[in-house]
Specification:
With 438 residues, the chain is an alpha/beta fold. It folds into 2 domains: 184 residues, D-Maltodextrin-Binding Protein, domain 2 (3-Layer(aba) Sandwich); 200 residues, D-Maltodextrin-Binding Protein, domain 2. Helix content is 47%, strand content 15%. The protein is built from 18 helices and 13 strands. The strands form 3 sheets. Strands 1, 2, 3, 6, 11, 12 and 13 form a 7-stranded mixed beta sheet that branches. A 4-stranded mixed beta sheet has the order 8-9-7-10. Helix 9 packs across helix 10 and helix 17 runs antiparallel to helix 18. The longest helix has 30 residues. The chain starts with 17 loop residues before the first helix and ends with a helix.
Length: 438
Amino acid sequence: MFKFHAIKLRINIRPPNSKSQGFWLHFGLAIATFVGIICLAVLPAITQQPVTVKVLIQALEGTQWEPLVEDFNNEHPNLRLEVVKGPNNTNLVEDLYTSAFLLGDSPYDLVYMDIVWVQKFAAAGWLSSLSDRVTETQLDAYLEGDVNGGRYEGKLYRMPFRTDGGMLYYRTDLLKEIGAEPPETFEELMTLSNTLQEQELVPWGYVWQGKQYEGLSAMFTEILEGYGGFWIDADTQEVGLDKPEAIAAVEFLRDTISEGISPPGVTTYAEEETRRLFQNGNSAFLRNWPYVYSLASDSEIAGKFAIKPMVHQPEHGSGACLGGWGFGISASSDNQDEAWTVIEYFSRPEVQIKYFLETGYVPAKTSLFNDPQLVAKFSYLPDLLNVVQNPVLRPPVAQYAQASDILQRYLSAALTGSQTPEQAMQAAANETRALLKR
């Protein structure tokens, strides 16, 4: 057996004498004072660290943001905006956001979104509604299409920042040479192209984005609008891809190739391939986005081109496919008020003017299209306003990415001749209906 022995500890405490008592009293006061000074100096630094608001963005635009980020951080010492630079491919940025949300709490407080991401992200519950943070009067300052593109089921999930819209570029000098006005209809576009080519003034009449990618869906949205057709009615879920108007829209694009108005390789062209053809003087007409204007203004066709809304059938109107970017707030963020502070900063007119002057992007605020500073540098902005005020949205449905993939595949089949327009559009409509039912 084990034996335990108690150990007694005796401590003798003697009353301090007056000298030692005074010493310890002063020593204790000195220690307390020192600790107090340390707490006053250190605790605020610990408890008042800046709150970090993180956002993922394409690398190119992230670099362009750097002056604004620096200004924001200097202006808000208790906040720190941190930009994570992702790939320049927008689809890959969307994938990174999606992966972050699917894995749980997203590391991003702000969500910088393409307009076609909004419904998918909102339907999944990944975004916080902004409806209680902004009034309708404040939203009236923005292009209506950009605001509507940020809504899902009646609530606002994206605050517009910059916009985009498809349009028709045309050579003013070539049209002047044949004594013609710019085209208003599809038929006039074909006739003028043919005339210019027959007179050997230009190799190709009209170039557009025919590659199988998102740009094909965007371009086709405008042609479809011009024929009076529709893709998906977001309210009723009706699909219009197999209707006569949609088939006629596909046939028009096929005709531009078969009649030699567009080059055979147009079915492999994205924005840049078509821009270079037009900018190098090899095409009379071009469908593209606003970014082309600044680049073409520094080329051999400077001063020899203009822009207008897309052509259309006489009995129907024109529509510019709406693009653009804006801000949402992650539903899982612990810093939602701070994220809104960032959005408010980027919404200030003086901040936007500074940014657009440097980058050439197009504002989403209507008043900025006539701002003297911006117009002095980008004289086309007032004309561009006429284009983007007549927008056509890609279908604002939660399954947009899958619907676009379906359309791209079957459009490509029709344009390359592996299926007839009727066959391709019927199949596209059937797959889209099945998708929406799921």
